[in-house]
Amino acid sequence: MLYDVVIIGGGVVGCAIARELSRFRLKIALTEAYCEVGFGTTKTNSGIIHSGHHSPPESLKGKLVVRGNRLYDDLQRDLKFGFKRIGELDIAQNQEDLQILAQLKEKGEKKGVAGLELWDRKRLLREEPNLSSNLLGALHAPAAGVINPYELSFGLAESAEKNGVNFYRENQIFAIDLHDGVFVAKGSRLGIHGRFIINAAGVFADKIAEMVGLTDFQIQPRKGEEYMLDKRLKGVVNHLIFPTPQPKSKGILIIPTFDGTIMVGPTAEDVEDRYDVSTTLAGAHRVFSQVKKYCPSISERDVITEFAGLRAVADTNDFIIGPTRVKGFINVAGIQSPGLTAAPAIAEYVREILWDEGLTAEERSDWQPAIDGPARFALMDGKQRRLWVNGDPQRAKIVCRCELVTEAEVLDAVHHGATTLDGVKFRVRAGMGRCQGGFCTSRVMEILAREQGVPLQRISKRGKGSEVFYPRPEDEEPSHDNKGEAQ
Amino acid sequence: MTVLRAHYDVVIVGGGPAGLAAAIGARDAGCSGILIVDREKEMGGILNQCIHSGFGLHNFKEELTGPEYADRFIRRVRCEPGIDILSESFILNISPDLRVTLMGSTIGLCEIKTGAIVLAMGARERSRGAIRTPGYRPAGVMTAGLAQRMVNIEGLLPGKRIAILGSGDIGLIMARRLTLEGCEVTGVYEIMPYCNGLTRNVVQCLKDFDIPLHLSTTMAFIHGRDRVEKVTVAPVADDFQPLPGKAWDVDCDTILMSIGLIPENELSRQLRLQMDPITGGPRVSSTLETSLPGVFACGNVLHIHDLVDNVSEEALRAGAFAGELAQGRRRPQDNIELQAGDNVRYCVPHTLSPDREISVYLRCIRPQKDCVLRLGNFLEKPLRLAIPSEMIHLTIKPEILQRFYGTTLRIDIVSREDAE
Amino acid sequence: MKSHRELVCICCPMGCQMHLAIEDGAISEVEGNKCKVGPKYARQEFTDPRRMLSTTVACRDGLWPRLPVKTAEAIPKAMMGAIARILHLLSVTAPVEIGAVIVENVGGTGINVIATRSMPKIKELDGTQSCPCERR
User: What does the alpha-carbon distance between residue B139 and residue A405 come to, in Å, rounded to a whole number?
Assistant: First the structure.
């Protein structure tokens, strides 16, 4: 099959592009290295939908973030992921900060960011009484919000697939051939032919570009560690709390995630290894020593889990989105913060670039923007629960005690493509709570094994090589190699 | 579909050793409408996966395995009319007037009324996040209890080469268990300078199999992208921080965390019960009633026990008091606050009354030899050895408290010289 | 021939560190114990160390795929691994009653291996269980 467009990379940007292009009569393929979309940088993202006042207006980042932010309400209506505009407070810890905030406000207003307001100390502490009384004030940006970035990715992918995009998962691209204007992206599972390639490969975008002979940018992976805190801290702050921004990173944030769990981080550390998603003692120390300064109620004793992700930072420090000297090869690289916010706007921008590069197509009259969102028992009130459960035994069976996830929801995740523990976890939250999978792991494994018709030992955390349990020696499945003698 | 009654005398949350004993206690107190609700396929709780022996020495004068101990209580519960058992079900909510919302595949979502409730949900294990072990997040890192369930009930192995963090009994037991299953256990790594588990387990689980125990050692970094590849272990300084210069790597494909149990307190927190921050469980009166009238607690959900015999003893009482309340017999309120004093980490219950014989469970903070347990000026009990990992049981007869006119009593553990 | 051996007593939480003097292959003296139980344990451990063995055997048609079992009495410590290996090749079929003898005279020890729980039978076809531990 010859595709019009092959998107390399199923992060939030790749999926957003896939969905945008699915509006048109085009043959689109998306290839993703992991077993699920969004399992690279996207799922480790802080989940912040920025209001846009931080990025310089002249940069591509700055232009796309404001547009992106505005697209989120419609996106949420169609794709049903959790999204709440909780607002952001950039806090001032000293006089210098106050000056920077005033400048930020001006810059933001110039870019069209609405509602920016400077709060004095009294107002700040009234609205956020758990913040330190040493703070001097804050810049309030009401348009900022929070999402679960993996929910968005799953929603974008589902919508794109519904509208005809073919997704190829666990297919890491290792080479790209070009003959007579047709690219062949060769992957670990299969090769895909296309007239245009969208390089949305995140931390590996420069490696993908090298495969067609392009070496004009480098990606520097920048690691960010995040720490999730116990649910008892829900409500300790109600807005996103940002320290006044510094040049290299936005500092250590307090993020009330959509589900209410408080997250603190991220750190910012340039690393060499493109798979280095380890958390460190130094990282934890940095996070908590900073955060305690502006919120003394938070301490490392409340950590329930921690993780790290890699930002794809291009050496230009801006997005690199555009055609290249290899006709048909489009870069969408260096998408660091505010990439999540900008993603829907990036998708539009990429579509425009494709049109400029000679790809044209009609809009589909039968395009379906919306998907049915997953049911979430945990968020229903008593009456809704009674109506929803209505005697269905699978809806009435709890699988994850901490997050109150039912068997029906887990099955729904499986029917939407989850084959791994993380695939279920990131769709329905089973395993994200206080006990971190202690209770639900065996139950989710049973469901996955039953639905796939495989023994329990084949169930993995996130794809081949990460199988969680081993069979007893006498239960081992016979291996299929020809060499070796019988036991 | 199972048919539940609209009204019960006592609803018991959890069908493990605590819940089963509570049901018997309530029955013996004369109740005829008792419901045990459990989330598993069968009763027995954690005992079903504890297939090793060592249970019941006090209660049955025999050393039983976990399932055998559970069986004694399950038999008794099954042959009692008036005790209903509901498995694979969850309690979602309890209102202040004791309307219980519960859900399960055989009952759907429904609401019942009850005269009293006994919380017996047991404990959960602390996981990696609680100690914030740095490193990667590969497959192969799990709690020792999850591994125990998978090995003993589902028949799967957690890996081939196992490193165990924490010298609690669960970790020691699993060291032996996995060795008998043909796995290699590289060692047990314990951050404290002393072992947390019973000496008997150190001998029969580690020494017997030449598995090294490294004290004052912690895991400093977990390596492996998709599956555990190795773990960096390091001795710790006095501040329990790893000493990076002395670290070494241990090749392994599995890491079991045996770093402590905490009461399964989701429901207790949901009910906004007054909690004891030291035990992690609810504060209770001498009838084991929590701060929400009609709601009682017992077993590991109240405070972490070492002997299941004590769990049964405590739960029988909780069930009996709950049963009395359900039948309209309310005991006089407690009027004495019980405080944890010198070398006492915590004591349960938190209040006392001269109305009845009271069972107090407590733990010491530091090991102490040849000491005396003192309840104010009213009771003294000599102890040859007090150690934190062994809970101390004290029975206070009503006559003793009847001589007390104050409002607060302290329990202290003092040296024999200080007592004289 | 004189020699020495160290042994930790496990009979109570005191965990007395005992020093055994061995002469001509037998214990001649025990030191370090704080009560009478210690030397008795030491003698048993020295002459004929024994252990209870518990493990699981495969179980067909049951509620769970493994049936927990134990040796009815303590077996020689040195045989634990071998006995475990024998048991791990076995398979039983549900239903099984608690206490049922799974293996008689296992490994020639004269000691039986018994089931430590009752395992109800599961009907394969519709997955329902015929199990005594059911609700009324």
Answer: 22
